[in-house]
């Protein structure tokens, strides 16, 4: 039996983390039909590979389809044939959907929020149209921890993107199967698998504070190499007795 390469071992380690997330957080069960939103970035490309392979395994039994959303008012040129080939490799159906948003319609919300919500709404519509009950997104552990830090710093709230989120309004669940996977591992997989970078030129991207949070997370890991795991554990280890409470005195 041939010895596995370092990259193959890494991919298997990532597959094990996805498997752990699926069972620990109840992300996928028998009979699920799942829509993957394939943006063309390394994370969503990896998700297609990971769930495409996983769907061929006996337990749990589920189906996967893939969609790419084109935002016509953003200069983002995707190689549609290439993206389709990534779905074809696993025998997955692939659909393209075009939509747009107008940033002037709601000046209270940032263009990034409006773009993200427009894409998300399109995913709900596509999922319903194709009989899916879940939507899988390519967020990894770094994304989730960075969102936690952003919410704490900018919103004064402890919250983030959960591995599983039930959207009652749309009768749909959002799942994040790569919630336990580190971004650095996905970066290595992208090189090994030869993922092609799509041309992205978003005029609103500089307005995001996510890059700042990446630096904060990196700095925390420099202070403590186990910082990301402590942050992750802290979200399910809320010690309310040791947090400040507002006391409402009766007049």
UniProtKB/TrEMBL annotation:
Q: Does the keyword DNA repair apply?
A: no
Q: Which residues form the tRNA(Ile)-lysidine/2-thiocytidine synthase N-terminal domain?
A: 34-193
Q: Where would one find coiled-coil regions in this protein?
A: none
| CDD domains assigned | TtcA-like
Q: Which residues bind ATP?
A: 37-39, 43, 69, 138, 143
One GO biological process term is: tRNA processing
One Pfam assignment: ATP_bind_3
Keywords, A to Z, come to:
ATP-binding, Nucleotide-binding, Transferase
Gene Ontology molecular function, alphabetical? ATP binding; transferase activity
Q: What is the official name of this protein in its record?
A: tRNA 2-thiocytidine biosynthesis protein TtcA
Classification from the root reads: Bacteria, Pseudomonadati, Bacteroidota, Bacteroidia, Bacteroidales
